[in-house]
Design goal:
Blueprint (H helix, E strand, L loop, with lengths): L3 H10 E2 L8 E8 L2 H7 L8 H17 L3 E7 L2 E6 L10 H23 L11 E8 L2 H30 L4 H8 L4 H12 L8 H5 L1 E14 L5 E12 L7 H5 L28 E8 L2 H7 L8 H17 L5 E5 L2 E4 L5 H15 L11 E8 L2 H30 L4 H8 L4 H12 L8 H5 L1 E13 L8 E10 L5 H6 L1 H4 L5
Antiparallel strand pairs: 1-11, 2-4, 2-5, 3-4, 3-6, 6-7, 8-10, 8-11, 9-10, 9-12, 12-13
The chain binds guanosine-5'-triphosphate and magnesium ion.
Amino acid sequence: MANSEYEYVKREFEFDRRLPPSNWIVVRIDGCHFHRFSKIHAFEKPNDENALRLMNACATAMLEKFPDIVFAYGVSDEYSFVFREETEFYHRRESKILSLCVSYFTSMYVMKWKDFFPNKELKEPPYFDARAVCYPNLKTIRDYLAWRQVDCHINNQYNTCFWMLVKSGKGEQEAQLALKGTYSKDKNELLAQQFQINYDDEPAMFRKGSSVYRERVETKVKTDDYGNPIKRTQLKVTVAHVDIIGSDFWENHQHILREGKFRHEYVKKSDINRMLPPCNWIVVRINACQFDQFSRIHSFDKPNDETALRLMNASASMMMERYPDMVFCYGFSNEFSLILSSCSSYFTSLYMTKWKEVFPHKELMQPPCFEAEALCCPKLKILCEYLSWRQAECHSGNQYNTCFWMLVKSGKSEKEAHEILKGTLSKDKNELLFQQFQMNYNNEPAIFRKGSCIYRQKMKELAEVEGSENGTRREQWDVTVDHLDMGPEFWRRHPWITNSIHV
Ligand code: GTP
Ligand code: MG
């Protein structure tokens, strides 16, 4: 392919680890800034039943979507997803697993919000971070889950006391002081004596958290000739608020954490800390999953839907506004490269919350999902070549698609169109467009041909700061969307982008 001169950048610099085999993989997601998020949405304290049920509905959707998730445990703004020990989900590639989980969960959260809060508008895009931890044997995976449930108990008991004290008129500081150094049984006594509350009677969802798993249920499929019911056992995704610290639950549900065939005698270190190498440009490439289907369902124009592309650009611009460390974004089709660590959740959330604005007459029918990959570029030259490679891919993909859809629209079948284009070079395609359709490819919109670059631009060179005597001036930077060639000339004309100017 004509672009192969740049392709080495992906092959050699892609930062993608495979999680060790024969380990249960736990993906733990946690709401980002949920302290603020729960405040602005006026969640009840200390537990908002609807917010928790929304989290549970998202976790249920995860188990329904990803069969390799065997168990999930959630409390507050976090959820742990356990993948079966021998999973080959995306070949155990960490960035794929993390980004898909967090993006799908976020998508579900935004989509299902109105089911749980019909009278509350979503005021800002929720987003989550995620980490993966590997557990090599049954003991460590069960201890991990027990640890989360113990944490749930400790926090909930504390918070129940704290908010009862506050609701009874104590100041927050006073309540904290009253609870300092108390043990579990002291807190139970406090609740019983001061508020006539038996802690054990509090809702199990608050005390035990939520476990989501597949339960064997007997369902009547039909009746036989004599009217007797014929039953079949099926696995159904269930949410329960039960003890998972003791062994009863696990003995009754041995199918959940079934061990694989291979056992490692060597117990691997459970939490491998993975850091991106220092002094590297970090590229996070976000790519929509099953976008083919998604664009069909939402009847996006072929080969390019300008509004859909603008939605991607708007989401990326908002990402840059939020993250000062992000210096440049480039995107085409359904992908976006973002210079920062894992952002797929925030991107998903922005995409969904901006949807209504961009497509006022189109309902979002399916949760969008974006996967993310990280790439480390130790030299600026490599970073520029990476971006050139993406732009070269944009060019060849768009030129092909433009020809393909013109042929199809002119009456050819899809197969015929593929046949016609097989083996053609760039200039052949330009000629085909010109001769058969009187189209000059270079006059097609730049957003389709070049993709979209997003960067900060100094808008007002200098603005006087009010009241300053020595002429202190302020610069105003805005996030700009452009559709340009990212050759050497572009970088020469925009030196501040790669000088990492922090605005
Ligand atoms: P980061 O995760 O570091 O981004 O910060 P965070 O603000 O999300 O805090 P953290 O994850 O440590 O804790 C979750 C926070 O979410 C809690 O401290 C609560 O403020 C809030 N939260 C979670 N669930 C509920 C709820 O049911 N009701 C209310 N009122 N707040 C909740
Ligand atoms: Mg959080």
